[in-house]
Design goal:
With 142 residues, the chain is α+β, with helices and mostly antiparallel strands. It is built from 3 helices and 10 strands, in the order βαββββββααβββ. The protein has helices at 17-23, 86-96, 99-105; strands spanning 9-11, 28-33, 36-41, 48-50, 52-53, 59-70, 77-83, 118-127, 130-131, 135-141. Strands 1, 5, 6, 7, 8, 9 and 10 form a 7-stranded mixed β-sheet that branches. A 3-stranded antiparallel β-sheet has the order 2-3-4, with no helix packed on it.
Length: 142
Amino acid sequence: MLHTIWAGSVIGAFSNRWSMEMTSGLHFAFAEDHGVFRIQEQGPTGRSWYADIDRNSAIVEDFGIVTRLVNSGTGQFVVTVAGITSAGSEAAADIASSPDGLAKALHNAPSDWKRKNVQILVKTTVSDSVAGPAQVVAIYVW
């Protein structure tokens, strides 16, 4: 079962030093410039994702990352679940904790993904401060 492959986790991004250290330099990483928070894709495309905030300062859309890092020596792994804001963290947690969500997110992943590091970038639409269903934006396996 897919949900059994995730063990131990670190939750949060900008509010969690461990999560920030563990994910810095990865393909999808959290970044901040002059108080503006985003998810930055490393590499040639260099895409960025920002939380969308309306004129009333309400979050309308947010992004999060599920990251699974495997220790090649022990086979143990750690998972981080984090978003630009809490809505993005909630969306990432929804994917990480749902066997169906994981199956959909990983359906095009390489067949040996279970032995590799994985990042899943998700987005959510926020209504009345409640995150909607998570949608997979991109996946990176290495």
